[in-house]
């Protein structure tokens, strides 16, 4: 009682602005900056793996999903620390420091000049960059996951008893900041990545793309600490999860101890715990376990859904992002999802679902979730169709048993090149020819008497499951200068200036996305004002437009609305809606506060499936070469259809329950007041200040049962 009185006195002294505690403004800004930091870093992460660390698609995808899975797993650790040890405020501070260090470490790992001793634009020590980036990602996962269950609950603690309306507004603004931060960061950081930087060579600006999120995380931490003197800080109240685990453990142990047939059977195996634990706690654990059993197949949905940040982004790199008025980066396509979410949620809630209900169709929550999974499966079928169109435009790469020869003739006469006794190439002046040969090439021979230098440049490249060997032959006249340069161009049009001594000329060239060109520059280039240069298109530009990805994003977002949002509503209709946060919170914000947490274990399991799949594919790459990208999409779609059928069968036999009715029945059996009467008592408290102390004494008598009702949250959160 004394502790509650102290809390109330403390709350009365809280400064307000426009009816809101001033402290919540620091929390809202903190959340916006933190979400910008996380989603901005995550938007460009898979491309950093693919094009900076030079990992293949499968390894890059595996590490990406392993990181996402860890981010959705660490909130359990954060909740335990906050409730059992440090409290919400200190947990947010300490883990935010870890978070900021991780972001800075990640940004430093992207600076290629640190190990680029020979100044060729490529890091010389990839081990250093990989180790540093992995350390950064682990720290980021600990930070973002650890503070996830604390920030919103800490914001709710700042409100007084008479501010229930402002509390509801706070949660609306809070989640608006989450979406605004993620949307803006996904738009901005890909643009930063596409910039060119470098001390010695110009490369894509990953340090800027990761550095801005790191700076925002530091700002988030500074802002949160700035409001320290205004916060209401509650002490740790103990973690109810431990009590729930002990209850389940006791039930299993007691059931095993009474496994003999001479003991009467009980309706549910959790009933074996009623000898030691309260019936209300046991009943709520039953509700949670019933829902969790139904949710066993559901991680497969998140297996597909989270690939929009990995496989679909990599697919966009093989497409054209030229929309005329603007250029869309491949990693910016992810913004289509939050934009569609903001559009489809009100349409579904206000139009589609009411219309279905008026038609007399029984579109129950479990049926909606099944349909949502089918929409996600259709999204991957659409992705497979897009991939088939992309594959038609890709170059004809050699098989794993072949090599590719590229011969460039910049001699002023036709060359007859003998590759082997049975193979000849007749190459005109300033032309390029490609040919394929099994295993290896024999020695090349050229016409005798040619005064030329022959430069051989060899490299091995891997595309999908195929390796190919490129040999570029540049014969140059002895009296001329022969230089070979390889440039990565990020803009559609670039201006070039050729200079030799006092001679110079310039030309402009428009490039296509994903194209590869070779410019053959003769010694007469200056006298012809760059007109004598010859352009050879080695690889055609991407011709499939990124707009073709919009249907698959629409389908996956529709599936998300029907699956995720409906699943949250179903979950909270089948278990008691109580929350271990501020004691003045109404049930609605308590439910809202826990909605995201409900999906964390499913996200984790779904990403673990992705990690397992892509790791296996990466390890057995040669054996799985038959699994092309479009076939992989179809495989995932087929698996989700199979899972949706299993889920629909389980849902058919599921019996809906009324948690409030079950609780009221148990309370009645125990001779306690029904919860509705408790609410009436609280209303009387507000109307009659004189009777407040008496009512509070009565409320404290039932505080043990209020805490018991909170257990289901931590149980489902932990599992």
Automatic annotation (TrEMBL):
It is found in: Membrane. InterPro entries: MFS_trans_sf, POT_fam, PTR2_symporter_CS. Pfam families: PTR2. It is a multi-pass membrane protein. Keywords: Membrane, Peptide transport, Protein transport, Symport, Transmembrane, Transmembrane helix, Transport. One of its GO terms (biological process) is protein transport. Coiled coil: none annotated. Residues 671-696 are annotated as: Disordered. GO terms for cellular component: membrane. It comes from the Eukaryota. The chain crosses the membrane at residues 59-80, 92-114, 126-147, 167-188, 208-232, 287-305, 339-357, 369-388, 467-489, 633-654. GO terms for molecular function: symporter activity. Belongs to the major facilitator superfamily. Proton-dependent oligopeptide transporter (POT/PTR) (TC 2.A.17) family. This is Solute carrier family 15 member 1a.
């Amino acid at each position: 009682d004394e502790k509650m009185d102290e809390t109330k006195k403390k709350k009365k002294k809280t400064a307000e602005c426009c009816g809101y505690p001033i402290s919540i403004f620091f929390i809202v800004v903190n959340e916006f900056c933190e979400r910008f930091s996380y989603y901005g870093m995550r938007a460009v992460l898979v491309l950093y793996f693919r094009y900076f660390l030079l990992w293949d698609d499968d390894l890059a995808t595996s590490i990406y999903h392993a990181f996402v899975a860890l981010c959705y797993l660490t909130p359990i650790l954060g909740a335990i620390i906050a409730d059992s040890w440090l409290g919400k405020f200190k947990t947010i501070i300490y883990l935010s420091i870890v978070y900021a260090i991780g972001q800075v470490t990640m940004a430093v790992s992207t600076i290629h000049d640190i190990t680029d001793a020979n100044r060729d634009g490529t890091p010389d020590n990839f081990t250093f960059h990989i180790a540093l980036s992995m350390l950064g990602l682990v720290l980021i996962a600990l930070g973002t996951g650890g503070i996830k269950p604390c920030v919103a609950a800490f914001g709710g603690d700042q409100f007084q008893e008479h501010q229930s309306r402002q509390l509801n507004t706070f949660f609306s603004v809070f989640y608006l900041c989450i979406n605004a931060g993620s949307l803006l960061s996904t738009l901005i950081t890909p643009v930063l990545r596409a910039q060119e930087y470098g001390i010695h060579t110009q490369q894509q600006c990953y340090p800027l793309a990761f550095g801005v999120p790191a700076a925002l995380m530091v700002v988030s931490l500074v802002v949160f600490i700035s409001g320290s003197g205004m916060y209401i800080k509650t002490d740790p109240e103990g973690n109810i999860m431990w009590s729930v685990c002990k209850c389940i453990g006791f039930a299993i142990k007691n059931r095993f101890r009474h496994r003999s047939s001479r003991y009467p059977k009980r309706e549910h195996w959790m009933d074996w715990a009623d000898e030691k634990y309260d019936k209300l706690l046991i009943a709520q654990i039953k509700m949670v376990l019933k829902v969790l059993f139904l949710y066993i197949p559901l991680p497969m949905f998140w297996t597909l859904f989270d690939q929009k940040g990995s496989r679909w982004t990599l697919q966009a790199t093989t497409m054209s992002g030229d929309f005329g008025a603007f250029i869309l980066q491949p990693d910016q396509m992810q913004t289509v999802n939050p934009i569609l979410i903001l559009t489809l949620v009100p349409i579904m809630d206000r139009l589609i679902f009411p219309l279905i209900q008026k038609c007399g169709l029984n579109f129950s929550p479990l049926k909606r979730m099944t349909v949502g999974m089918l929409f996600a499966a259709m999204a991957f079928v659409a992705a497979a169709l897009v991939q088939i169109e992309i594959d038609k435009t890709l170059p004809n790469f050699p098989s794993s048993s072949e090599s590719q020869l590229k011969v460039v003739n910049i001699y002023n006469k036709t060359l007859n090149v003998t590759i082997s006794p049975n193979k000849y190439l007749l190459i005109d002046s300033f032309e390029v020819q490609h040919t394929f040969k099994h295993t290896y090439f024999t020695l090349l021979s050229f016409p005798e008497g040619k005064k030329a230098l022959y430069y051989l440049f060899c490299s091995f490249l891997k595309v999908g499951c195929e390796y190919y060997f490129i040999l570029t032959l540049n014969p140059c006249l002895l009296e001329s200068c022969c230089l070979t340069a390889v440039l990565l161009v990020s803009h559609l049009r670039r201006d070039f200036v050729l200079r030799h001594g006092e001679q110079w000329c310039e030309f402009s060239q428009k490039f296509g996305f994903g194209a590869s060109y070779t410019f053959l520059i003769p010694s007469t280039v200056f006298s012809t004002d760059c007109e004598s240069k010859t352009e050879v298109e080695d690889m055609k530009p991407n011709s499939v437009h990124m707009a073709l990805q919009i249907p698959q994003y629409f389908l996956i977002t529709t599936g998300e609305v029907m699956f995720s949002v409906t699943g949250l509503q179903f979950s909270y209709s089948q278990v008691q809606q109580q929350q271990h946060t501020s004691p003045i919170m109404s049930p609605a914000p308590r439910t809202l506060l826990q909605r995201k947490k409900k999906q964390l274990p499913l996200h984790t399991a779904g990403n673990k499936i992705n990690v397992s799949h892509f790791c296996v594919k990466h390890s057995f790459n040669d054996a799985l070469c038959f699994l092309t990208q479009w076939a992989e999409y179809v495989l995932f779609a087929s698996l989700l259809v199979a899972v949706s059928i299993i889920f629909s069968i389980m849902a058919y036999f599921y019996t809906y329950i009324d948690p409030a009715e079950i609780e009221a029945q148990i309370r009645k059996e125990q001779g306690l007041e029904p919860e509705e009467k408790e609410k009436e008592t609280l209303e009387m408290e507000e109307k009659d200040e004189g009777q407040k102390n008496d009512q509070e004494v009565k409320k404290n008598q039932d505080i043990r049962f209020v805490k018991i009702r909170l257990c289901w949250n931590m149980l489902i959160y932990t599992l």
